[in-house]
Amino acid sequence: MAGDNRTSVTVVGLGSMGRALAEAFVAAGHPTTVWNRTPGRAGSLVDQGALHAASIADAVAASGLVVTCLTTFEDTRAALEPAARALRGRTLVTLNSGSPAGARETAAWAGAHGARLLTGAVKNVPAAVGAPDTLLYYSGDRAAFEEYEETLTVLGGDTVHLGEEPDLAALYEMAVGAMLLPALVGFFQGAAAVQARGLRVDSMVRFAGKWLDMIKALLPVYAAEIDSGDYSDAASSVNLFLAAAAHDDDLGEETNVDTAWLAPLHDLVRRAAEAGHGEHSVSALTEVLRKSPHSGA
């Protein structure tokens, strides 16, 4: 595609991820307009060839495709509100955190201003933006996705449209993201325990990586068990995890590491056993996590 024919793009929000998005568009030859509430963040992008808009209204008016990278859906709407009239006829892509409810509210807001909306998520760190295997997923207006798919693939080669419902990307972002903090805190607990023995944390990185590979390999198995509701073929049972809870307490006492963050997880395992899932696969914890319609949730 000739450079003059490349889609023009506006990027709103120039934190570390927003800058990475803008840099990827510029590097791919897309005319790129940028805007940030703090103008100084645009300097390096201008040096690379981006155009710095003087106002949010100018930024939105500059391109048919407007990509925002702010913290929340509420922040996105607040930043764009002064330029709401300029959104008519444009495609808005939101790459921020937030709940499905926030995505639905933003879809209604964008629609009221005549914009097509794609909500999305970058499932990697800023340094990985633009890599062939970097995953981004989107939901919302399919026609808009199909029109701009080639342009959006500049941000990551693994680009997926989840469906027309505007809240699907937020749902998957939270569903998948729920794994992150427990996994990281588990690593940090292990790091503190290793250091308590005078050992370097980097000595456990290779082993932790292998452990994560094993967990990754189990995910399709657990997904199949949960989808079918059949937990009877237990490679790792609930009771096995229940018995292991005492080892966590012992480790905490020996290494003087606070393992209190595990208490709710141990309670979840205990409740699963009490509900009759003791000999079932640990994936049966899903059944305990579900709240009944009458639970008041």
From TrEMBL:
Domain 6-phosphogluconate dehydrogenase NADP-binding, chain residue ranges per copy: 9-163
Residue ranges constituting the NADPH-dependent reductive aminase-like C-terminal domain according to the UniProt record: 165-291
Keyword annotations from UniProtKB, A to Z: Oxidoreductase
Pfam assignment, any one: NAD_binding_2
SUPFAM superfamilies: NAD(P)-binding Rossmann-fold domains
Family under the similarity heading: Belongs to the HIBADH-related family.
PANTHER family given in the database record: CYTOKINE-LIKE NUCLEAR FACTOR N-PAC (PTHR43580:SF2), OXIDOREDUCTASE GLYR1-RELATED (PTHR43580)
Name of the molecule in the record: NAD(P)-binding domain-containing protein
